[in-house]
Queue: 3 jobs
Job 1
Amino acid sequence: MRKIGILGLVGVLALFLGGCGGGGTTTVVIQTLSDQPVDGDIGLTAPATFTFSQANVARNVLYGIDLGGTEFRAFLDFPLDGSNGGGVVPLSAVIVSADIEVFVNNVSFSSSVPTLLDLVPFPVTGLTSADFNSAPLLTRSPFNIFPSDINNFVRIDVTSLMVEAQRRGVRNLQLRFLLDLIPGASGLVELDDGVVGRAPLLTVEFQ
């Protein structure tokens, strides 16, 4: 469940929480939605046919493998400088925690979809074929998406990825979802990226 309601298309929260005992460090919590015109997915059909879909057109992003054998990878872009109307994470901030919430529209072809989540730079001007398999800056530990997640929000801890993004001084947290290609892995996941109140949401707590 979401921590706050979404106002319009922004969905921003900025809370200043005083430290215990009056002498603690002030903690700030911000929230920001992903940048839908930048979000999208790439499909690869062997041997080398790429298809591209933008979230502001398709209203969703896909990752995994469909029945035809096309592999999809999904890309989400979270501005950290407030450029999309969301909260700002200063470059001097020390990250305490970070997570994203995504709404799962559908899970197909598997009872469990093993998932990798990469921190990976990609152009805000549009995805290219090079982004499909570009080297990640960091990958968080694998996790699973299940059919029971359909029509629900899933919270994913991205603290390690946010810490690395902050260390590198990037102004966008850019993430790639892909199927973890372990033996027997299968499945296709559709994440909502169009309905108000269901868009991917990043929450960052920092000092």
Note: The first strand starts at residue 14 and ends at 17.
Job 2
Amino acid sequence: MVAIVAGLLGLCPRAGTGAAHPQVAIVFEHAGASLDDLKTIYAMRRPFGLGIFPHQRYSAQIVRDAAAHGLTPMLHLPLESINAADVGPVGGIVWVRMTDAEIARTVAGDLDSVPGVAGVSSHAGSRATADRRVMTAVMKALKARGLWFQENRTTPRSVALDVARAAGMKTVLVTTYLDDPPTDMDAKVRALLRTAVRQGWAIAGAHITTGAPEIVARHLAEFDDAGVVFVPITRFVAAAHP
């Protein structure tokens, strides 16, 4: 069963109870290096979220294309992980060793490479998100741009949402992926559907190169038959409550 936590730390989804139909948001991550990887996502014509790496060949173009296709484009912000391999060969990484000024410049540069994003999601970050000083510097830079923050939690020691909420930022938490690990994805998509029907809402994440978009596409008719509608991730972005 897909377990999705959005009520943790006082974050309650705005959709769900009282909604005419169960609502689901899916965010696909790791865009930027290829345009072909996105064809299936665009063809589904659903308002998915799209996490875009900074400084990649097609990063800026994908922001524009995603918005034109009705998706929610986000900067997929690379953050230092305990296991370096988790971050992967991407640029614009926020390292714990950086000073606050260096973090601010890095985040600003990342955002400048993806002009027009609606929000920011975290990539990796098991080390950085557990460091309050680092996350304070990150959130300060994001808040200055008027952006909200989606955490893809990779460690129970994370303080990222605490820091963001203390700064008065809007946030959303995704703790479960349809392809992490990339096995039994059909079963995970069906579990997502059951979760949405049972509680009236559901949130999930996935990656663009694992085959997850194709599997979601294969099950769209099941969501439609059950009366479940796909909504933008912004439907679940909650205002901070100081």
Note: The chain has one domain: 23-236.
Job 3
Amino acid sequence: MTIHLKRIMLFAAVLAVLAAGCGTKTVPPTSVLDTPDYHYRNGLKYLDSNQIDEAMKSFDRAVAIAPKSPLGYIGKGLAFGKKGDFKAAFENMDKARGYDEKGVESRIGMIRLLSMQRGEDWLKKTEKEFKSAQDKDPGSAPLHYYMGLAYKVSFDFDKAANMFRRVIELNKEFTAEANAEWATIQKIQRAAPGSVIGKQIALIDRLDRADIAALFVQEMDLEKLFTKRGAKTYDTTFKAPEEATASAMTTETVVKMEAATDIKDNWLKPSIDTVLKLHVRGLEAGPNHTFEPDKLITRAEFALMLEDVLVRVSGDEKLATKYVGSASLFPDVRSDHYAFNAIMVVTSRGFIEADKATGEFRPGDPVSGADALLAIREFKNQLKF
């Protein structure tokens, strides 16, 4: 073996040791689309649809192609964060920071991660990351957008609105998303939720029965309203025949079944108990004693609930049939729809609005927290309480 060949083999061995020490093997791209940026953007789309494993594959590919690019590590940090593994998440985000020459993309990633975890002093940390990135790129639309989301989940709606407005002014990326977020924030600001629970529910896009129960109790103060207005309550629970009850009482203790057996571990149980006691139409327990707290409600169902409360606090029972036999004002609601009268009542009062562009009510659509709060605010304003 010649000296030259020995030197080549020795050099190859050193490279192999160095490559093993790095722990990441670089692989060559297979096409013009096989780039870190492509896989990073693709992974973010998977994350948005909560396909975390698919997202991680894309981020791993980004790292494999370019181990010294921050993009793959940012993505992996966000994916680990969604999984709840914040140790691995911050490790990857710190690694991204080391490779991020501009120092903007990794700081945006850190803002998103801190907003996800919401640990100690998380908002101060996000503001620090924002300021550092803003100094380097004051015109970054993603930076302002994700800082807006951070303020939104911290319930600082004024600062969130300012951030989303800035994204719209920049007119670059995330303009449509910022417009939608700004519209939601404006609704929340107008509704002005007064309770912590109200603020939390304001951020939910699709409310369930437990959420609505909490809003009626916390934001509308329904129990106090019914007492103040002398609203009638009806005990619709099952009653055994008098003779059978009397006989049972003499022989054994009667065990009363709970109104709802599926709310024991629900964090909104106190509010659910209250609406069950008040017998709000549409929020009753079923015949099998289940409340179904996680079941999403529709706009038609919400209209029925608001109509019931309005009838009971106003004492005007004619409202419950006021529009029966009338023509529908909405192209997607027939006059024989089960909630037709309620829909007419709540829209005529301005509690819920139809689509201004199409005139549709969309009875089967979900109800957002912002829209529900706005309806309750208008309800309270009209009743002056």
Note: Confidence is low (pLDDT under 50) at residues 8-23, 234-239, 243-254.
